[in-house]
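S.,

Sequence below, as promised.
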Amino acid sequence: MKIDGVEIEDTFAEGFDIYVSKFLITAATKKFAKIAADETVGFGSSVIMCPAEAGIDRYVPPSETPDGRPGYVVMICHPKKDDLEHQLLERIGQCVLTAATTAVFDDMGSEADEKLKVGFKLKFFGDGYEKEGNIAGRKVYMVPIMSGEFVIEGELGIKKGVAGGNFFVMAENQTAALVGAEVAVDAIGNVEGTITPFPGGIVASGSKVGSNKYKFMAATTNEKFCPSLCEEVESDIPADVKGIYEIVIDGVGEDAVKKAMKVGIAAAVKVPGVKRIYAGNYGGTLGAYQIWLKDMI
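The prediction came back faster than expected:
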């Protein structure tokens, strides 16, 4: 199977269930909204070691936000609902409430399976001086702070989503693989309800579950896909490939992840030097979702 002359391997990405929260951070300026969003999604690449997986979904112009100010929608994901709520309280409380001029609004809306009283719990920072309010028909809490008021909607919606959508960009050298991965991430950025949580949206390391040698390790390098080890191990890298990057995608549902994979692959294969598209899986033992690359054509 080929797209634009690039080989598409006959394999699948293996996704698994994850709880997702999607909320909007607004501020007086686009700059400060982005600062708050960046802080909120920090240390959120993989739940292998990070406390959550997180990323920025999209920018929202003032004409489309509840308070008429620029904002960014962020997504926080965790396999356990209680842990997701804990992450929301910590990340919003420490990274958004502390940021200049910010407000927080639910962005899950009718998609939500249920709502968590995150805003209600964070209002207590006001030490009894907090007040209830209404913005664009939404119940909010206004918490007095040194610079004015921090505003947060009382409840934030969550739902079950899908994590682990992925594909590998395999190229003739590292530079071509990196450019292919970059344009893929840029394309995925236009798919609402998805994030690529790794740094810059790109996974440089790759990994496998467990270890061949160190039993105390939860995950270790995927040696079969390390170009520098081709002469030392039973490699799965084709002879014409010298550079590999992985794109990992989390989304509000399987359809969103599939769409993101499709547009990302379509962008990557147009880059000169990209030779193959592959996907990582564990034979169906990790999760319930098998997203076949052949369906991306």
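The chain has a mean pLDDT of 97.

Coffee later?
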